Give the backbone structure.
Amino acid sequence: MQFISDQIMLFYTPESAKTKLGRHKPDLWIVTEDMTSQPNQPWRADRTTPVILITGNPDAVEIKKNSGKLTVLSMPLSIVDLRKTVEIYVS
């Protein structure tokens, strides 16, 4: 992921992501389980951008999106799996 590190943006709340991004859409959302319980989640409204969800319990989290654009990775997270998944979406 080093080749895209200058393009990575980190947000602690969905509202800060919406404020910073404005009308622009990212190439990929990487979302943690705790973010899915917060209000105004921009990745839920974005029906085209892929989402990688990192969760401790993949069966407990539901995101209604195009299933081809959602990848769920379980904790503990393998950095190799994360890297491969990111490369699929951004290459």
